[in-house]
Amino acid sequence: MQNVYSWAAVVCICSVIACLTEIVGSDTKFDKTIQFVLGCFVLCAVIKPVGDLAAEINFGDIREYSCYEEQDDMERMRQELIDARVTQLAQTKLSENNIVVSSVQASVSYDEEGQAKSINCTVTVSEQQKIAVPEINRIISENFGTEPKIITFGSG
Question: Which of 15, 91, 121, 134 has a Cα at 20 to 30 A from 81?
């Protein structure tokens, strides 16, 4: 806010100087030239701080930052969508084999280039569903190439 007050003070001072100069230099054959020069002087006093502010802002950095941020968000959303689809597929494969589980959570690991590297699958079963663990291992291994992590809850 201090910068705005300083800018307003400079504009006022320039305006006063322009008025005094015009009063002192009036009634000459250069009256129009003096008015033009004084107008340019006041205009520069008004515009220069705005130009200085615009010069300090590097719009390329802002654009580049927002692009990288958008790319990161898009990549994160893509990975979340893939994880959800793989989880849904694992649930479907288990259901097709009449296996009921409490929950399935799958996630995909990626390498440095963003390529899928491996699938991690966690299956939660109750004590009553524990009998299906060998079949769960077989189905997940055949379809996803990985051994699932089995979590058992409840007491038997």
Answer: 134
